[in-house]
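Protocol step 4 of 6: record predicted structures for both targets in the notebook before any analysis. Target 1:
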Amino acid sequence: MKKITSTTCILPWMALDRNADTSDPAFAPCCLYQSEEKSKRSFSEYWHSTELAQIRSQMNKGEKPAGCWKCFNDESLGQKSMRQSVNESRLGPHTDLLDKTSAQLKPLQVKMLSGASCNLACRMCQSHVSSKVHKVWESVGLPLKEPYQYDHESEKIIRENADSLIAWLVDNDHAGHITVYVTTNAMMLDDKLISHLKRFENVVVIVSLDAVGRKHEYIRPGADWDTIVSNIDKLRKNRLNVIVQPVISAINILCLPELIDWCQQRNLHMTQM
């Protein structure tokens, strides 16, 4: 078994990330990695690339790959890095991957971000994450970071594969032993998706709610409280588990007691308690 070194991160052995911080954008082992290569590559091309093989080799030698500087910088400042957090949950179960050759390895995790398009302009959000927040910040003269570049290739991959993957899991009797987590602002529901999700062993729909009624609408401009409540009711009528998860901030801290009461009256579990 290969020795786990002080610079080991399990992600280069198991993950592909369609990295918005990388030119074009291109693939990377994680969302923080910054590649020096500028060429745009496919899934397969990057998984078998010289760059990824070099990252693994350097980590096996206890060296710090240049593109991983963000994690190592956090650690030098005494902060917990994403590398350390990921290793806590995934290195143990997947240590055997460190012994495999590049030809033997297959990606176990794929992450794609199609862009920063969003239907809400949440007040606690940032300009590079939400297209609507970017417009608001621009109009009031706040310092801007450009929104994540819209990635048409990722959008195509997601549309062509996500729905078909769920349908395949259902049609081949795999859904009955799988738990699916869905995070949503509950403004839009897809009836076809709901009908498929009902076939899974367990579905947890995490609804982002920060307050009750008009207060929530103020915190998340574009939200409509009546639509949200109606959609939550629809999810529960379809026997899907719904939990409420607020983003706790100075904007809503005094609204939380009312939100807690609202959830308790409806037997809705609320995280962040």
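Target 2:
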Amino acid sequence: SKTPSLQKLAQILARNQIFAPDIRQALQTVENSLSTMNYEAVLAQVKSEIDEETFDRYKLEFSGTILAEASVGAVLRAKFEFPETGRPGEAACKVLKPYAITALKEDLQIIDDVLAYLEKHGDFYQIGETPLVEIFKEIREALSREILVEDERRNLVRAGEYSEQDPKILIPGVYPFSSTNVTCMTFVQGTKITEAFPGQAKERAELARRLSDALTYDVLFSPQDQALFHGDPHAGNVFHVANGGRDPYRIALLDWGISAEFSRRDREQLIQLLLGLTLRDGKRLTNNINVLVDWEPQSAEQRQAMRDRIEKLISEHQGKESFAVLNELITTLAREGYSIRYETTIFIKSQLTISGMLKELDPEFKQDKHTMDRMSGQVMKEFHVRLLKTVYFPAWNSHNYRSMLSNEDVK
């Protein structure tokens, strides 16, 4: 109940379809329905952070219950008035739980010791050479970012600016009465995306397509040089907005404690990996593997060894979705001592979490097929520009398109 790192692992695994439904249901209670704090303690924390003058100026009134609680934060719902206009408003105030920082440092140290012990006795526990401590660094780094409240607020502001022109996505705005450890933001009236449109298969299928577009396609094929993405999209952080107005499928992305940016070059290489898996092209995968791990081949033999390793993995995991295979590849390479790339790893693991939500919304949804269909549609939009560039043969291999695919890739 007070082990943030295990709670985070539970959130990541909660929608994974490899687990039985009762296991998933149990894990899902950790998404934002924990109960480790009482209301009075959370309210006292808020009042210790926000001074009386601010309370009076905004006429802050808090509801009498905790709205939600996750691994490092608890949320209270509040009513207030804008001082300039007297207009009423509602806020969700997220409080960093007092024990979160000390508990996190302590339980990560304990878990590191356990993992080191398991590695030392790997044969007995049948884990082979798996570098558990190295792999767990991803969770440690992600959690350490979650307790940096000011960073989360900056992420929220950046995400709001980044998505400003996208009416399909709602990012909560940050209110000025936030404090050091309390972030007060727009209250989102909605429900977990997996609970939207109960019993309405058609609407849930459309919401699945919208979710995949927002958190996969629009990130990979963003027109911006740096694509910002949500690094922790479990169902407790992804809401279907109630009363979305003209758009009944609007999605709200909450809790931006974990986010990252994807450069165009890295996304171009990741798309080449996805294409390589689709075409079962070991050479293409090998040529772009450095977007997953730090790797600079020193010889033709090393390059061939990497290609053999990749082709073996493709063969062993035939039929799995692409992001699941890439996750297996990252794990395999980490096990062999390669240093993994944080941004790419977080994105790929976020896709596994998203995949579980997509299956709950629409059991027939195929994430790979939808992404490839969208990619094909983008290529068709580029047809006339591509035709012009074929006049100049040196531009045949240019990736300077929204799809980031060259004419050779398309062929």
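Step 5 preliminary note on target 2. The chain has 16 helices and ten strands. The chain has a mean pLDDT of 88.
Proceed to step 6 after PI sign-off.
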